């Protein structure tokens, strides 16, 4: 610690502590986790730098050539080396479409996880800190929502929000933005319960501790105690939930898009690609749907494995 | 026990009330339902008459009261898009969804429990590890993707596969295994209940959709039974049973499996509700003419009466199943019959 005081309060200090810690050690010990992390990182990088790494721009209509449509993957008899994973019905390169699609899927996934996390933490903190009728009300609502599968809740919210925008033309939004907003709202609002329950549980524990009582005694405003003192101490489990929820959010986005209430085909996510490709399954062009499907499955599997490991690593009881 | 059931019943009524409130609120959210029901050429006077007839000029609490009274008597209003009573439309499609859900629940139990017992008893066996790995992948695959993969394998690939010769003795044509990939096949009308369970065609059409729908529950049940078996096998009374020299089979199935059943019943009960809801996805993939497909179309067209009715129906199923599960505890676990205080705290 002396080191940390003499040198500038180092940015590297938390990193060094992390590298010496149990979490990093257990990470290194599990080859499956390292693999999952590598795959996840690859997806994140591909999504972040999509326009620069993708071999083609699948949305530039000027560059699409219908003569290039429905070309099988490069290693098959009629394949074309320009299109590694083949092309779809409009001559779009599947590999590029998948990279752009992962970008959309992950963007919506992150945004909806963020929404449900903020909402869940706020309601959980409030529930645990205030208690009483507020607590009872929030938790009853959580129970009732939890009894319905998230995808059903998401579909309902989806329908209502679309209906709201349809009947309120004063909101000038284009179709793609509307789809994004609807998806983030429906996935985000249908998944806050997990966070709220966990945060409430930890808040109840923290509330009874001495540092909180001391803060009360010296007259700190309750809202400040809640945000500055309790919140940092209940964030650990939230991270685990957020990781697993990211996988669930990506699945939910893909499912909603597949069901036709998600991202429109003009700027497809992975789910939209699968939906579009599904129409070509019977005519033999399997690559249009199977490759985006595989991309989705691998992404979800990798994030799930990472979440599983994180849960075990942060929970000493399971070790 | 009676007190416990009454308390659960009141809780269920509360859940139904909140769901009804949410359903009712959906109508308010999208603006004037009259606009959804009439054409552009309808005059203002006609609109006002319709508004009065629908009771839209009443105070909101009165409207909500009418909504509940109507719903209880089975009147869920008229679909905006189809101009037909929602209750009739739901009833027509109920058999398809219920048959699909029942068959997939059965499938997940009949396959999941034996797999769970097996992986619990041979925890280090090769096959057990294969089961567990496959189940992890199964959880990661979204439902609709499983359906698409099954269609790809059993409807597309098998249809085009060449015949396989077995030791040059006889040939197997893989296309006999080919499965229909959409619709219910031939259905028989049993007094309004159109069933696909009585024809070979209809049963064949059920195979892929019910596997798709049941696979997630299967992995869930398998993992649950496995961990419960591992837990139970460590207990003293199992050790004692072994010391008494009871046969392995009697111990594993008579003593151990029986004690894993309480959580299995809970989870299965809770999952039946989500099976019915997840049928939305499976029905879309396999073009299964059930309630889920209708609900999805309603979401796309913002047909609020159908959405509200479907939500309340699912809530009703959920509440009823939960009550049944609570009562089943008493049948399965004799301890609860004595210790009611503990059981009510369980909820």
Automatic annotation (TrEMBL), chain A:
One of its GO terms (cellular component) is plasma membrane. One of its GO terms (biological process) is transmembrane transport. It is found in: Cell membrane. InterPro entries: BP-dependent_transpt_permease (IPR050366), MetI-like (IPR000515), MetI-like_sf (IPR035906), OppC_N (IPR025966). It is a multi-pass membrane protein. SUPFAM superfamilies: MetI-like (SSF161098). CDD domains: TM_PBP2. The chain crosses the membrane at residues 34-54, 104-134, 146-165, 177-193, 234-259, 286-310. Keywords: Cell membrane, Membrane, Transmembrane, Transmembrane helix, Transport. Residues 102-307 form the ABC transmembrane type-1 domain. Pfam families: BPD_transp_1, OppC_N. Belongs to the binding-protein-dependent transport system permease family. This is ABC transporter permease. It comes from Thalassobaculum fulvum.
From TrEMBL, chain B:
The keyword Methyltransferase does not apply. Signal peptide: none annotated. It is found in: Cell membrane. GO terms for cellular component: plasma membrane. The keyword Transmembrane helix applies. SUPFAM superfamilies: MetI-like. The chain crosses the membrane at residues 12-30, 100-118, 130-154, 206-225, 261-286, 306-332. Residues 94-329 form the ABC transmembrane type-1 domain. It is a multi-pass membrane protein. Its main location: membrane. It comes from the Bacteria. Belongs to the binding-protein-dependent transport system permease family. This is ABC transporter permease. It comes from Thalassobaculum fulvum.
């Amino acid at each position: 610690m002396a080191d940390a005081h003499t040198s500038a309060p180092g940015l590297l200090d938390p990193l060094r502590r992390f590298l010496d810690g149990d979490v990093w050690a257990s990470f290194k010990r599990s080859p499956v986790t390292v693999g999952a992390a590598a795959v996840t990182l690859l997806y994140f990088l591909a999504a972040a730098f999509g326009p620069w790494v993708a071999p083609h721009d699948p949305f530039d209509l000027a560059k699409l050539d219908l003569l290039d449509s429905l070309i099988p993957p490069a290693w098959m008899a009629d394949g074309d080396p320009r299109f590694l994973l083949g092309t779809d019905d409009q001559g779009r390169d599947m590999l590029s479409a998948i990279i752009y699609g992962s970008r959309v899927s992950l963007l919506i996934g992150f945004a909806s996880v963020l929404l449900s996390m903020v909402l869940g933490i706020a309601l959980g903190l409030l529930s645990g800190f205030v208690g009483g009728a507020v607590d009872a009300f929030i938790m009853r609502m959580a129970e009732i929502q939890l009894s319905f599968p998230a995808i059903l809740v998401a579909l309902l919210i989806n329908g209502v929000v679309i209906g709201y925008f349809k009947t309120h033309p004063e909101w000038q939004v284009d179709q793609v933005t509307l789809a994004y907003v609807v998806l983030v709202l429906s996935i985000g609002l249908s998944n806050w319960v997990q966070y709220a329950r966990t945060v409430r549980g930890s808040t109840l524990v923290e509330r009874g501790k001495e540092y909180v009582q001391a803060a009360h005694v010296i007259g700190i405003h309750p809202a400040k105690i809640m945000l500055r003192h309790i919140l940092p101490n209940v964030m650990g489990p939230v991270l685990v939930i957020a990781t697993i929820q990211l996988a669930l959010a990506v699945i939910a986005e893909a499912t909603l898009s597949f069901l036709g209430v998600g991202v429109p085909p003009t700027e497809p996510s992975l789910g939209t690609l699968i939906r579009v490709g599904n129409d070509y399954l019977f005519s033999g062009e399997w690559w249009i749907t199977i490759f985006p499907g595989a991309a989705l499955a691998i992404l979800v599997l990798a994030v799930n494995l990472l979440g599983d490991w994180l849960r075990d690593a942060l929970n000493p009881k399971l070790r | 026990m009676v007190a416990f059931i009454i308390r659960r019943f009141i809780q269920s009524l509360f859940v139904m009330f909140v769901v009804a409130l949410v359903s009712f609120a959906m109508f308010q959210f999208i603006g004037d339902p009259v606009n959804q029901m009439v054409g552009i050429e309808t005059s203002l006077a006609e609109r006002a008459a319709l508004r009065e007839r629908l009771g839209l000029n009443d105070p909101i609490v009165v409207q909500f009261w009418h909504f509940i009274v109507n719903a209880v008597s089975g009147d869920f209003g008229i679909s905006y898009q189809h101009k037909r009573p929602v209750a009739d439309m739901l009833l027509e499609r109920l058999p398809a969804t219920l048959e699909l859900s029942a068959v997939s629940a059965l499938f997940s139990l009949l396959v999941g429990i034996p797999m769970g017992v097996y992986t619990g008893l041979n925890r280090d066996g090769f096959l057990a590890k294969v089961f567990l790995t496959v189940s992890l992948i199964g959880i990661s695959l979204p439902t609709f993707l499983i359906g698409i993969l099954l269609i790809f394998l059993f409807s597309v690939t098998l249809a085009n596969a060449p015949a396989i010769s077995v030791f040059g003795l006889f040939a197997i044509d893989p296309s006999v295994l080919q499965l229909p990939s959409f619709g219910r096949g031939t259905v028989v009308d049993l007094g309004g209940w159109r069933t696909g369970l009585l024809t070979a065609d209809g049963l064949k059409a059920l195979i892929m959709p019910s596997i798709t729908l049941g696979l997630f529950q299967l992995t869930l049940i398998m993992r649950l039974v496995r961990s419960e078996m591992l837990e139970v096998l460590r207990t003293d009374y199992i050790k004692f049973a072994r010391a008494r020299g009871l046969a392995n089979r009697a111990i594993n199935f008579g003593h151990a499996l029986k004690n894993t059943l309480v959580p299995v019943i809970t989870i299965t009960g809770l999952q039946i509700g989500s099976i019915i809801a997840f049928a939305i996805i499976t029905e879309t993939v396999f073009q299964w003419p059930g309630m889920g497909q209708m609900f999805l179309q309603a979401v796309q067209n913002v047909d609020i009466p159908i959405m509200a009715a479907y939500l309340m129906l699912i809530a009703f199923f959920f509440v009823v199943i939960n009550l049944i599960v609570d009562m089943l505890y008493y049948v399965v676990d004799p301890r609860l019959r004595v210790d009611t205080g503990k059981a009510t705290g369980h909820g």
